[in-house]
Amino acid sequence: MQPVLDKKIKLIWDFKGHAAAKTAEHHEKHLKEYIVIEELKFNITGVSHINEMHSIAYLVVAEFEMISVRDMLKPHRGEIFND
């Protein structure tokens, strides 16, 4: 088994309430800008609508970038990202 060189970490922001979907979509725009400004390794973002009152925006970073991005952007949670 080969070692994973760059484990991908999915940083997640939760948005709740009537404006959750629009807020998550707007937040993703800022995440995309951050990728370019900080020259992050991966260009992976997204939005998922859990239900009409809960949406998430996410950013995928390399494991070595996780702490600095986490400290700067303060996501609500994170998980290992599997393609």
Verbal overview:
With 83 residues, the protein is α+β, with helices and mostly antiparallel strands. It has one domain (8-80): Alpha-Beta Plaits (2-Layer Sandwich), CATH 3.30.70. Helices cover 33% and strands 36% of the residues. It has 2 helices and 4 strands. Strands 2-3-1-4 form a 4-stranded antiparallel β-sheet. Strand 2 and strand 3 (54-62) form a beta hairpin. The two termini are 18 Å apart. The mean pLDDT is 94.
What's this entry about, in short?
By secondary structure, the chain is of the alpha+beta class. It is 33% helix and 36% strand. It has a single domain, classed as Alpha-Beta Plaits (2-Layer Sandwich).
Helix-strand layout with pairing:
Layout: E1 8-16, H1 20-38, E2 44-51, E3 54-62, H2 66-73, E4 77-80
Antiparallel strand pairs: 1-3, 1-4, 2-3
Uncertain segments:
none
Distance between the termini: 18 Å
Kindly report the average pLDDT value.
Answer: 94
Helix content: 25-40%
The helix tally amounts to: 2
Share in β-strands: 35-45%
Rounded Rg: 13 Å
Count of discrete domains: 1
- Tell me the major beta sheet: 4 strands, antiparallel
Question: Structural class of the secondary elements?
Answer: alpha+beta
Query: How many E-type strands?
Result: 4
CATH architecture: 2-Layer Sandwich
Which descriptor suits the 3D outline?
A: globular
How are the strands of the largest sheet arranged? 2-3-1-4
Spell the H/E element sequence. Answer: EHEEHE
Q: Using the coordinates above, name the CATH class.
A: Alpha Beta
